[in-house]
Amino acid sequence: MILKKERLNDLLEALASKATVYVPRELDGQTRFAPFAKGSAVELGKAKTVFSPKETLFPQTETLYTYAQLGEDITLCETVNTTNQVLFGVRSCDTYSIERLDEVFLTRTFIDTLYLERRNNTLIVALGCTEPDRSCFCTSFGIDPAAGTGADIQLTDTGDGYFVEALTGRGTEALQAWSPFLTEGQKTAARELTFSLALDTSNVKDSLEQLFEHAYWNDLSMKCLGCGTCAFVCPTCHCFDMSQNNKGNTGYRFRTWDSCTFSDYSMMAGFHNPRPTKMRRLRNRFMHKLSFFSDRYGSSLCCGCGRCIELCPAGIDISRVIEDTSSLMGAGAEQQGSTAVKEVAS
């Protein structure tokens, strides 16, 4: 079935009458997934948004529960999310990233109920890419930019419309409501995309482990500002801090995004910090992305979206880190340290 581009806004208005529909929009000069409003411009032509749709499932600031004390009685009220939402126009790098967040928040014996509620109430509509940005390298991690694995519905640009196909049972059910906006049509063959960045990531995990104590990390850390921009624009970073706001006998507990590059992130009781230097914190970031996460979940935590490359004010480039470490190993660099000295992943 085909969704003609002139019917796009009609469909989005219909969806928005029953759920919060997040679409790529330009706000304050930057693109991000924001609620659709009638008459608002939808930015589906860009390869990716500046900010990923991560914040729709894992908000930057989120209340966990409220509490109140009356005498000796204490009342706790957990936050409950029941709002249905649609993520429309999600690229393959971001559907891959959502699968990684699912692994973190929904597997290995721990279930994050707030994330689970949002995830269960979310329909994901993916849109295949037609032109990658110069910083994109998703294919280096085996991601198909034309197929949003993990999405419920896949859209493929046909020029004057989008070929629509369901990928899950939820997607099949959702398309029943889309039928008034669809016409008969066939899927066209996907055009092969040319990426400026094409990396060999097959040995990156082993290279990083062997170079754990290499001087390369100290040299790289000299550039890092420790600002956390990389973590905040990354669609897979999931570190958070928790705090509370007390007002007399009432208050609330909340969590906010955090970054392992912040000096306070790994601070422990008694002011002990196992990563007291910027070098150790920066090294941990890349080790977690490209090695530690794979040890635990079997996949890379980097999706090759290139957002951190574009926005790092110091010009630190994860694709260069991958290339540099591979070159160092290929050149027979001294293999100091071993996997036994790896820090605990954040």
Provide structural commentary:
- This protein is an alpha+beta fold and 346 residues long.
- The chain folds into two domains: 165 residues, no CATH class; 124 residues, no CATH class.
- The protein contains eleven helices and twelve strands.
- The strands form two sheets. It has an eight-stranded mixed sheet. It has a four-stranded antiparallel sheet with strand order 5-4-12-11, with no helix packed on it.
- The longest helix is centred in the last third of the chain and has 20 residues.
Briefly say what this structure is:
The chain has eleven helices and twelve strands. It is of the alpha+beta class. The longest helix is centred in the last third of the chain and has 20 residues.
Strand order, biggest sheet? Answer: 3-2-6-7-8-9-1-10
- Helix tally equals 11
For the secondary structure, the number of strands is 12
Residue-averaged pLDDT: 92
Distance between the termini: 44 Å
Main sheet attributes: strand count, strand direction, barrel closure: 8 strands, mixed
What general outline do the C-alpha atoms trace?
globular
**Any idea how many domains?**
2
Order of helices and strands: EHEEHEEEHHEEEHEHHHEEHHH
